[in-house]
Specification:
The protein is α/β, with parallel strands linked by helices and 337 residues long. Helices cover 38% and strands 18% of the residues. The radius of gyration is 20 Å and the shape is globular. 48% of the residues are buried.
Length: 337
């Protein structure tokens, strides 16, 4: 079988993304990497790190340590480490969209993305709320954000909403879509034949039988009951303050949280360095780092590459599972990420 082909996008050129990609290129691997980036940024990062970097034309295998295939997408200006320039916003977006288009057209088996600076892109005149939303629009798919590490996988019903708006966004159709997408991803991407999903309540103590809010009784429980009738294994709704206890997590393949800060602080505390961000529901696997651009660290050679390493390894593993369909996985429970 031919090696898995991954598209790699460093993200903000003034941040740590380019140097993390250079570090990733040094690792022995059984998948090929094609970067969508400015060659000058990658060479500058390699020079700052004192590491070798051989950039090959796109389409050539790049499997050896120190090698990357490259689709060269020049930035408008050459940024200094730690000093992003809004004039480069279009190049960042172009790299993301071209890499994703390559996946949609079947030239790549998955996409790995580094950290992007949302504010700088918006300052560059491009309305941008996040790469997850950008790729979903391009593919015409409804997607789910999942973060994962070696301890737990957490999928979100709502993502970047003010807390005041969260309750109104928790609807039976929204929850149903997230649960079905998460179930399908655990089965098709992670090879878990019968995934078990824990579902958190919205309110403290999962509503305390309606005394602390009725969302659990009126929305969450009926949606879960309908999906259980279809064969999904769902547990809950569970109080968020006890659902993440290690003894309970051992029985779950993923946790679905109602909002961003309900589930992600626990995940990041349990293993931030190895956490990754997955976009579930796309026609191809997309895995990103779970950290920002770290402008204050750029060019110093001290940025931890663990999240990008985990993202690439996870993306390659999912691509192989998709290639080997029908799924031949474990019944439960697989290692997260």
């Amino acid at each position: 079988m031919n090696p898995v082909r991954l598209a790699l996008v460093p993200g903000e050129p003034a941040g740590v993304g380019p140097e993390l990609c250079v570090r990733l290129a040094q690792r022995p691997r059984d998948y090929s990497l094609t970067a969508f980036a400015d060659a000058r940024s990658l060479h500058a990062a390699a020079a700052a790190l004192g590491l070798p970097l051989q950039l090959r034309p796109p389409g050539q295998p790049a499997l050896e340590p120190g090698e990357l295939a490259l689709v060269d997408l020049p930035n408008a200006v050459v940024p200094a480490f730690g000093h992003p320039d809004p004039r480069n916003a279009q190049a960042v977006i172009t790299a993301l969209l071209q890499a994703a288009e390559g996946c949609l057209e079947g030239h790549f088996d998955g996409m790995v993305t580094g950290p992007v600076h949302k504010a700088v892109i918006n300052e560059g005149g491009i309305a941008y709320s996040g790469t997850t939303e950008l790729l979903a629009r391009q593919a015409g798919r409804e997607v789910v954000m999942m973060l994962a590490n070696d301890i737990v996988r957490v999928a979100l019903v709502t993502t970047h909403l003010p807390l005041r708006a969260v309750a109104d966004a928790i609807t039976a159709p929204a929850l149903t879509d997230v649960l079905l997408t998460t179930h399908a991803a655990l089965r098709d991407d992670f090879g878990i034949i019968e995934p078990v999903i824990a579902v958190l309540g919205l309110n403290p103590h999962a509503g305390e039988a309606g005394h602390l809010g009725r969302e659990e009784l009126d929305i969450i429980e009926p949606a879960m009951a309908a999906l259980r009738a279809q064969g999904l294994q769902l547990v809950g709704p569970l109080p968020a303050d006890t659902a993440f206890l290690p003894a309970k997590l051992r029985g779950f393949d993923a946790v679905v949280a109602m909002y961003h800060d309900q589930g992600l602080p626990v995940l990041k505390y349990s293993g931030f360095e190895h956490a990754v961000n997955l976009t579930l529901g796309l026609p191809y696997p997309r895995v990103a780092v779970d950290h920002g651009t770290a402008l204050e660290l750029a060019g110093q050679g001290v940025a931890d590459p663990s999240s990008l390493f985990a993202a690439a390894d996870t993306c390659a593993r999912i691509a192989r599972v998709r290639r080997s369909a029908p799924v031949m996985g474990t019944t439960s429970k697989s290692t997260p990420a």
